[in-house]
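re: ur msg from earlier - yeah i can do the adenosine-5'-diphosphate complex, just paste it... oh wait u already did. ok heres what im feeding in:
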Amino acid sequence: MIHALSVASEAYPLVKTGGLADVVGALPDALAPHGVATTTLLPGYPKVLAHVGDADVVQHWPSLLGIEARLLAGTLGDHPLLVLDAPALFAREGGPYGDAQGRDWDDNWRRFAAFSKAAAEVAAGSVGERRFDLLHAHDWQAGLAPAYLRFAGGAQGVRSVATIHNMAFQGSFDAGVFPALELPPHAWGIEGVEYYGAVGLLKAGLWAADAITTVSPTYAQEIRRPEFGMGLEGLIASRGSQVTGILNGIDPAVWNPATDPLLAARYSANSLDARRANTRAVEARFGLTGDGPIFTVVSRLTWQKGMDVLAGLLDELVAMGGRLAMLGSGDAGLEQAFRDAAARHPGRIGVEIGYDEPLSHLLQGGADAILIPSRFEPCGLTQLYGLAYGCVPVVARTGGLADTVIDANLAALDAGVATGVQFDGVNPDALRNAIARAVALYRDAARWRQMQRRGMAADFSWGNSGARYAALYRELLG
Ligand code: ADP
Ligand code: GLC
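and the outut:
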């Protein structure tokens, strides 16, 4: 049995801003059948503390990078959970990274450096009876953990894996914070945490970890190029074969249309007519009338997601006979652009600005197609949920979107294997064409149903990917 410590700043259902949480929440179950026992370590945000209640205190740090902290032991589903309770760092209203207005906390470097230092100490076995073989660090928030391990001399053979969920978030901070990290002076350099004259938390993790993974094979290739590597392409290329892409899976306990309690009606590939009740519920909720395919968006409203390009095409989407039910939040300008479009097209475009987990399920279960025009997408989960729910994905051909959707070109349609629509280049012409293709396909009811069924039959459960992570762990542990 391998004992792994999975270190992350989010885990569904306790704290979620995006796909990272879904993946971290699902990993323990995904790895268990492959002989890996996973303990998850999370920061003690108010909701996480409320979840663990008056848990056992297994460690006390009078000063963890100058902050008093305790380690609490609880459970996440059927698996062990450790929580870093450091009120000065994490007991705040707002989000995990910033205040209610979306401004990043000034001391994020200290919050996640302390978190990573605690992670390294726990993994190295200096806390109570717990022993770990491997530390799995997710994204920049956990990036320093492999570095602390490395500078502690590889801490008794504990190996480390760093997983990149999004290269756009690198955790870069002013060089002036370096002394407060309590790393040895030689950690300041290319062989260490220095990154273009700043402290780079993700960079440190990628440099220090024994293996690097990202969340799709295509993104693993893309990040070797400047456009996607965003400054870290050289480091990635230099790690060569130690960088692999392991596709995210979806958690069937949470995302299955046959059992989903958040739907108005449950259905399967053989009972797609029952899906209509969800479509009616979406129409009611978003004030949609008439007919035509309902496109949905369930997304952070950001540049990454190509939402600016979509916002510019909404009048045309309506002119083509489409409707839109959108759920998202993010950039204020984009939020306004979608609200304005809804005001221009009552009955055809409905918009909910916000974050609403139950509504995200209803949309996948009731809309006809999900639009994902991302400029880059390390994996993407909403297209996988769309496939599983018969909500046909219309996606840019990048990252995990390229790896998981089979474009409805003529050959794929004839062979009956198409599951969605893909397009190249996130620009108005390409997206307009993709929407037009989707509208035309929708009008061919038999073809559309075949695409829905084909997507629903695709297997994006964790089976394969859980096995691949476990195999990687075994390889590292020799
Ligand atoms: P990313 O992590 O880049 O945001 P993913 O597709 O990997 O993209 O994951 C996004 C996750 O967040 C999915 O579970 C999706 O359903 C959810 N999500 C995004 N926006 C919202 C929202 N406004 N309300 C509810 N869930 C959302
Ligand atoms: C990131 C990426 C997304 C990926 C998710 C989980 O947020 O943007 O593509 O699916 O992490 O790995």
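cool cool. The chain has two domains: 2-249+462-477, 272-457. ping me if u need the other ligands too
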